[in-house]
Amino acid sequence: MVKNPSRWQPHFLEKIIAPHPQLEITGVGYIALSKHLVMEFMTKAFLVAAILTMTEDVLGQTASAVFDPQTPVTWLGIDFTRAKLIGDEDKLNQGDKIKELVASWNELMIKEASKYNIGDAFNKKNVVTNFSAVVKQNEGLDYMAMLAKNSFEVKMDKDIVRGIVAGYDLQGMTGLGLMLNVESFSKPDNQGVIWMTFINLNTKQVIFTERMTAQPGGFGLRNYWAGAIAGMLKNTKKKDYQAWHKKYADNYTEEVFDGPVISIAATREIIIEPPPAKKTVELENTNKTVDLTTANKSVKPGGKYYALLIGVSKYNDVRLNLDHPVTDAKKMKEVLTHGYNFNPEQTMLLENPSRGEIFAALYKLRNKITPNDNLLIFYAGHGYWDEKIRQGYWWPRDANASDPSNWLSNSDLREQLRGISSAHTLLVSDACFSGGIFRTRDANSIKSASIDYQMLYKLPSRRAITSGTLTAVPDRSVFVEYFLKRLGQNQEKFLPSQMLFNSIRLAIINNSATVPQEGVIAETGDEGGDFIFQKK
Question: Which of 103, 90, 183 is CA-nearest to residue 137?
Answer without folding.
Answer: 103
